[in-house]
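hey m, so remember when u said the tokens were messed up on ur end? i reran from scratch. heres the input so u can diff it against urs
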Amino acid sequence: MIARAAKPVAKVTPLQYWTEGQTSELAFWDRVLTGKDEWPETRPLRTDPNLPLQDYLTSLIGLSAGSTVRILDVGAGPLTCLGKKWEGRDVRITAVDANAMHYDRLLEKHGIIPLCRTILGFAEELSKVAPESSFDLVHARNCIDHSQDPLKAIDEMLRAVKPGCYVFLNHAIREGAAQLYEGPHQWDFFPKRGSFYIARPGRMSVNVSKRLRRRATVDVRTSPDGPSWFVACLRKR
């Protein structure tokens, strides 16, 4: 009997992982938008027109009273988490997410008219929706480590922010490992010896601080979301 050669195992790409993970992402937001069961504080906070823009963000924006503040929120979900008010300033938020069209249907289902409607946009392709050097702050929370190509996404965010201004990345530490690399959780973000790193199983980790040193200064900070998270502040040169 002649043994047959085993068929090669198909390699699963980050795109396939990301695509498969969107079902669980949409199911999560469907539950949250009820405002009853999971994370009940999320809906009232994100639909509050008087919620102040967070202090840890205003401290990064060097604009005086009377200014217009333009913020890009990447991976914003159906409702941006950013506050809408800053005394004496006109806050204008552009919220983008790859699932924007699906989120529109969820918002309609739950009877929510968003204060800032999320528009369609992939983090890796922000140049299609965000002009270069046009934002006073670019914000991303709990999303870039779920993207198909986080390094490309970060490059695009740096492109969109004005020179001298910040990209604010707020993420859980090693979320990929915590989620056993299931669904969209294919990347680990973590601080190490004062630098910002990205890693993925089977690949060498990347020192993002070193990689971006000619384009930005990178400052690793504690996160407003607690000790299991961290912030990477990227200031565009």
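this time it looks ok to me. The domain at 14-236 is CATH 3.40.50.150 (Rossmann fold). if urs says something different then somethings off w ur setup not the seq
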